[in-house]
Design goal:
This protein is of the alpha/beta class and 318 residues long. The protein contains 7 helices and 16 strands. It has 2 domains: 82 residues, Copper Amine Oxidase, Chain A, domain 1, CATH 3.30.457; 204 residues, 3-Layer(aba) Sandwich (Aminopeptidase), CATH 3.40.630. 34% of the residues lie in helices and 28% in strands. The strands form 4 sheets. A 6-stranded mixed sheet has the order 12-9-13-16-14-15. The termini are far apart. Bound molecules: zinc ion. The site of zinc ion has 5 residues, from loops.
Length: 318
Amino acid sequence: MGKLRTVAAVLLLLFMSQFVYAQESGVSIYDLAVSAKAVFRWNPGMETGELSKRGDVVRFKIGIPFILINYSKKIESVKVFRGKNGAVYISQNGADAVLDLFRERTPAPGSMVVKAIIIDPGHGGKDPGAIGRHVVNGEKIVLKEKNLVLDVARDVFMQLKAKYPDKEIIMTRNSDKYITLEGRTEIANRVKLKDNEAMIFVSIHANASLNSRSKGFEIWYLPTDYRRELIDTDSLDKDLHDVAPILNSMLEEEFTVESILLAKQIQSGLEKTVGDVIPDRGLKEESWFVVRNAKMPAVLIELGFVTNREEALIMRKD
Ligand SMILES: [Zn+2]
């Protein structure tokens, strides 16, 4: 008899759990993240969460009747709630929106994808770059550009790797090593790409000035009239030799426009994140810097001035 009662109790429990499930029907966000191959982050204190993939982000909060896609698009009437088992659930309409956003898309034929990002920490080894000397609480501090930009480049590398696992993220140096300017662009130019793949080159530096009050970040790109030798005439078919200069200038035009777009993106990103402590000195064009031989869109960032005490102290922090 005792056994029968246990069976009845188990059946009743199963029936009740069905009932609970029917009332709060939805998909566990953990399962959703697994099937969408997205990254799930949860803040238990705020009861907020986020799913992200390839730079797209969905944000949600328990009890708030919508989810937010890429900080701009709202999907209304979505229920995010805690299930009986304590896990976080989302209503089916929300799960569908998430799956749609994160579904694997094959790029349309002809559309380009950035496949590789080259991060180039300036200087290194025997070349320290700019040096800032300051006294902080009676202690002498020497800030060398080569060390500072390597730390920043490593951090950028890790963040890009995590955000874009299917892209190639390449550092021109990952130690205190001297590399010539030619060596740096060679590393980039050696990367093999398919026809619809592109890459970008980002050189990271820090500034210096005799005027210790100079401060702010700058982003540089090649002048619009600068001409690189992008196309190797010998590698072209004989009948294309005559048009090589035209092909070259078309490619040059494209790289210049893309470099300016990239510079603007980085500028607005820096403005948003550090703009209140490191002022924006604007976009600048110059033909002498390292990226002049990179056969791709390329920019150079001057993070701030190691010679400015305030900025040097900020740049030493993570
Ligand atoms: Zn430099």
